[in-house]
Design brief:
This protein has one helix at about 210-215, and strands at about 10, 15, 20, 25-30, 35-40, 55-65, 70-75, 90, 100-105, 115-120, 130-135, 155, 160, 165, 180-185, 195-205, 225, 240-245, 260, 265. It is globular and about 45 Å long. A hairpin with a 2-residue loop joins β1 (about 10) and β2 (about 15). About 45% of the residues are buried. The strands form four sheets. Strands 4, 6, 11, 12, 13, 16, 18 and 20 form an eight-stranded antiparallel beta sheet that branches. About 5% of the residues lie in helices and about 35% in strands. The chain is mainly beta and about 280 residues long.
Length: about 280
């Protein structure tokens, strides 16, 4: 059972402090056809400041895809083709050379001049096993291959920083736009998740540090409550969405970004060792 085997007020993954754990006995399954969760547009889910400047953000989730070689959309804020809505998205491509994508958009289209993204071919492997993904964005959007930073993104699979490729030429950055957040699909109809999600978390104005990532992932055995602080974890107050996806579609962060379900179901697809 996800979250079992540890108490609180203990040495947790080498970190001394109160470690509040969380559990899943079910996870959320999407059928790859029409299932999705919709979260209404909110300023807390847009990653720009009051002056329109990009700010850091981070996202994390557990995923178990149903099949290999599929186009699996994880989430997107906004809709392609509806001008002034598209801000960001995460998805798996069906081509092994492309793997996993994370990107930011200027709201108009997914043409190269309207995005900056990164893709990770290493993320295509083990696609039907449970795996943990963390995406961070540094707020500036620079590329430094030596630190595996691509258009401002760093991506971790099962706690390991991945090598990727930067794409796109957009010069506008993101804006605070009017699109809803969709989970289980992207803005494009061909990218629909067939598989399970659990413990979806979004941090605003915060790039997870190495110690944060070690704490959140915890070798894939026990999940922690991301809204509860602990020594060497500084992101508790920056969580704007936390969906355990155990038995409801509510935002457990207290921010109020609750979801509305359309078709997805809860199934007991959990494992005591998630990797």
């Amino acid at each position: 059972m996800l979250g079992s085997g540890i108490g609180t007020d203990t040495i947790f993954n080498g970190i001394t402090g109160t470690a509040k754990t969380t559990t899943n006995t079910n996870t959320c399954h999407f059928d790859g056809l029409n299932d999705k969760i919709t979260v209404a547009d909110s300023d807390s889910l847009s990653f720009v400041d009051s002056g329109g400047n990009m700010i850091p953000y981070s996202m994390a989730f557990w995923c178990k895809r149903d099949t290999t070689g599929s186009r699996d959309g994880i989430l997107a804020k906004g809709v392609k083709g509806i001008s002034g809505t598209l801000e960001y998205r995460l998805f798996y491509h069906d081509q092994s050379t492309l793997g996993f994508f994370t990107g930011r958009y200027d709201g108009n289209s997914t043409a190269s001049s309207n995005y900056r993204d990164a893709y990770y071919s290493s993320m295509h492997s083990n696609s039907t096993n449970w795996h943990h993904v963390i995406v961070t964005f540094n707020g500036t959007g620079n590329t430094d291959s030596g630190s595996k930073l691509y258009n401002g993104f760093q991506v971790y699979k099962n706690g390991v920083l991945q090598s990727g490729v930067a794409r796109g030429s957009d010069a506008d950055g993101m804006s605070n736009l009017s699109g809803n957040l969709t989970i289980g699909q992207t803005d494009e109809g061909t990218f629909k998740l067939g598989g399970h999600l659990a413990q979806l978390t979004i941090w605003r104005d915060y790039k997870l540090t190495d110690s944060d990532i070690s704490y959140i992932y915890n070798d894939g055995t026990v999940m922690v409550d991301p809204t509860s602080g602990a020594q060497n974890y500084g992101g508790a107050s920056k969580v704007v969405l936390w969906m355990p996806l155990q038995d409801n579609y509510n935002d457990a962060s207290g921010t109020g970004n609750n979801g509305t379900n359309d078709g997805s179901t809860f199934e007991p697809q959990v494992n005591s060792n998630w990797v």
